[in-house]
Amino acid sequence: MISKKNSIIRISAIILILLISACATIGEITPGRGDIISWQALPGWQQDNLETIWPALKNNCLTKKLPAGWKNTCSEISMMGQTDTDTIRAYIETRFVARELVSTNNQESLITGYYEPILNGSLKPDSRYRYPVYGRPKDLVVIKLDKLYPELAGKTMRGRLEGNNVVPFYSRAQIDNGGKQLAGLEIAWVDDPVDLFFLHVQGSGRIRLPDGRILAVGYADQNGHPYESIGLSLIRRGVIEPEDVSLYTIKNWLTENPGELDQILFSNPSYIFFAVRDEKLTGPIGSLGVPLTAERSLAIDKRFTELGSLVWVDTTFPGEQARPYQRLMIAQDTGGAIKGIVRADVFFGRGDRARDLAGTMKQAGSLYILELNPDRMASYILGQTN
Length: 386
Prior knowledge:
Helix content is 26%, strand content 25%. It is of the alpha+beta class.
């Protein structure tokens, strides 16, 4: 008679073989990814309090849009339940390997931050609340180009129908410069056009209504125009030095120069449309379709880093003192300004600290992708049977 322990070992061995056969062979190098490095060589790896990433990992498993092999990983995470930092660290070291992300075109690394702003607004317009937050237009057409051209996988085009032709959707200037193209699509009205612009930049936020209620809004779609940094516009004008550009310096300049406000804002033709979301969620919904977790969710360029991937961030806090900022994060979001393999945007949450960090974060640093490693599953699976 076969013992229960031997049966578990045999089943585990079969699972291990299936896992290994289903995954890519470790050792294959993807362009932009360096060799495997040891966990001892990963800067700051031993200092991170990994207990706080566990809820974000569970959120990660709420979607089916994960890298290959994550179905098994999510099953393991579910079985482990709530656990401590040492156990999480040992599990990750067993299940993953780390590779540094390396620019292939001499792009300098840049790690910035974003947050969930709180605006003042109303469900009805008046002399104070004059600036509309729009929902998604029904005539916004999204064309997936890979349906016609497979080589353009993941590429889309947005526009609107004009007769039988698809033409570009309205730009920011056309929408906000007295146009009525989106009349009737207002979700709410807010009291500050600059705050509204930065709500577009952040992609989600909360609107405090006059009666104290909170309306949570999140990204629903975009007009298809490219994102252009108004910070760069101000640098080109020579009114802000590159090293001084931040959320605060931009807002201050716009506030002090109201006559040039529209011209600067319209230099970014990209426009975001919003949807009302459940304000009880722990955070806004990112591109992966799961709630974001403060300082554990990361926006990346999905051309290089697959959504749902674990990424180790090695950078510094903003400010004169270069204090290390080293954390394990999850690629759960994207952004119009996040372009390149060594470019990332840390979600800092909401509140004063989140605003201050997001407003000043523009640091160099290193990013490390954590790839699933089937070759190391044997010690983990078989270890559970002993």
